[in-house]
UniProtKB/TrEMBL annotation:
PROSITE patterns: MFS. Keywords: Cell membrane, Membrane, Transmembrane, Transmembrane helix. GO terms for molecular function: transmembrane transporter activity. InterPro entries: MFS, MFS_dom, MFS_Efflux_Transporters, MFS_trans_sf. It is found in: Cell membrane. This is MFS transporter. It is a multi-pass membrane protein. The keyword Transmembrane applies. GO terms for cellular component: plasma membrane. The chain crosses the membrane at residues 29-49, 69-91, 98-118, 124-145, 157-177, 183-204, 236-256, 276-298, 305-324, 330-348, 368-388, 394-413. The keyword Transmembrane helix applies. Pfam families: MFS_1. Residues 33-419 form the Major facilitator superfamily (MFS) profile domain.
């Protein structure tokens, strides 16, 4: 799963520079281009998470354990972690617009290969290819919206772009799951591949191109030789950023140890019919969107309070879900409440990180945050697979709650550290 947390960038961090150019008319807001970019994000996240909804069908078809299908999420996420930085460096001189088109085509190929895969190993190879594309995609999209608008509109532009990731959980994964139940999981990947190609055409036609990013290199080699090397002091905000990335990784490990295998839990743990899995995932996604709305309206300026509540409510709701499996209405209510509480966590973690990081390291901090997020996704799916094989699916949510408690304690401890320094 990929990160949707950039929605709530702190607007106070965007400086307004006055100049004679400020009298010029502000260009029209690029709604069409940004919506097109958001659609590409929607397709990317749907491709990443679709196996979670189709896990039972893929397991039977490929004749492997359900935990092995869950590990497809790990293969995808770990590929993103390992390849995103080197591939981004290798392609830094390529036009950004063309890269997004190429990435969507590679996504289409990856999904077609998944659909026709004769063996599990073939599916793994196809997912690795998709993971490489996904890492490159986010290295480009992360800054693309900011190049389409003036600085004062960056927060608004980014919120539109990454909203596609939220919509993937609300519509993409549930619809793909429902299609897989009705027509077979392979056809779901074929349809997604076709949508990827349509998305590539839309990007080519409607997304405005931007210039390649500046590397900030000096103007000449002589200037580099003559200028003395000044060693900058270590940034004082690095420890805080590292701790937030640690909390992010821990939280995602716990979440995806359970959520990756949510379809078999709903079927075997709660005993729901196969036809109800997609509607329940839809309800979970809608609840997550409500959580995002709560962050934007209430908890955005109070990320610490929101984080504590989000982690605590997630732990309580998952506990209820695990304990009251025999009481279906209560279990479903707890499932939806979990979706809302967890929907608050990624944007609040990102907001907390942006508040903690100094402007000098903010870009680097965001890159480390993305790496921690994806490492958590892959590590969580791997942990869930190990737990299922060793202790059984019914204990996975209990382990998840334990991990949430660790994350919650770390958040509380880090909140008290500045207060102690202030007293001393």
């Amino acid at each position: 799963m990929t990160n949707t947390a950039n929605i709530f960038l702190p607007t106070g961090s965007i400086p307004v520079v006055s100049s004679t150019r400020s009298t010029r008319a502000v260009p029209p807001f690029p709604w069409v281009g940004l919506i097109t970019l958001s659609a590409a994000v929607f397709l990317s996240v749907t491709s990443e998470m679709l196996p979670t909804g189709l896990l039972p069908e893929m397991s039977r078809s490929l004749n492997v354990a359900q935990s092995q299908i869950g590990l497809l999420v790990s293969w995808f996420a770990f590929t993103v972690v390992l390849t995103s930085a080197p591939v981004a460096i290798w392609t830094r001189r390529f036009p950004r617009h063309g890269l997004i088109i190429v990435v969507l085509v590679i996504f289409a190929v990856s999904n077609i290969l998944t659909a026709i895969a004769p063996t599990y190993e073939f599916v793994v190879a196809a997912r690795v290819l998709g993971g490489v594309a996904h890492g490159l995609f986010w290295s480009v999209v992360g800054a693309y919206a900011g190049h389409l608008v003036p600085k004062a509109q960056i927060g608004r532009a980014v919120s539109i772009t990454v909203a596609g990731g939220t919509l993937a959980f609300v519509l993409g994964v549930p619809l793909g799951t429902a299609g897989g139940h009705l027509l077979g999981w392979r056809l779901s990947f074929v349809v997604l591949a076709g949508l990827m190609l349509v998305g590539a055409v839309l990007v080519w036609k409607f997304l405005p191109p931007v210039a390649r990013y500046s590397t900030g290199a000096p103007a000449s080699a002589s200037a580099t030789k003559s200028a003395p090397k000044i060693r900058q002091p270590r940034d004082a905000t690095v420890p805080a950023v590292a701790l937030i990335c640690l909390i992010t990784g821990i939280t995602m490990i716990g979440h995806y140890s359970f959520y990756t295998y949510i379809a078999p839990f709903l079927l075997d743990g709660l005993g729901v019919d196969l036809g109800l899995v997609a509607p329940l995932l839809f309800a979970y996604g809608v609840a997550g969107a409500v959580g995002l709305l709560l962050v934007g309206t209430i908890f955005g300026p109070r990320p610490s309070l929101g984080l504590i509540l989000g982690l605590a409510v997630s732990g309580v709701s998952v506990t209820l879900l695990a304990v009251f499996t025999a009481t279906l209405p209560l279990a479903i209510a707890a499932f939806v409440l979990w979706g809302m509480a967890f929907g608050m966590l990624p944007p609040l973690l990102q907001t907390r990180m942006l508040h903690a990081a100094s402007p000098r390291i903010r870009d680097t901090a965001s890159a480390f945050y993305t790496t921690a997020f994806n490492a958590g996704i892959g590590g969580g799916a791997l942990l869930g697979a190990v737990l299922i094989e060793s202790v059984g699916l019914e204990l996975v949510p209990i382990v998840y709650v334990g991990v949430l408690v660790v994350a919650l304690l770390l958040v509380i401890i880090t909140d008290r550290m500045p207060r102690r320094r202030a007293r001393s």
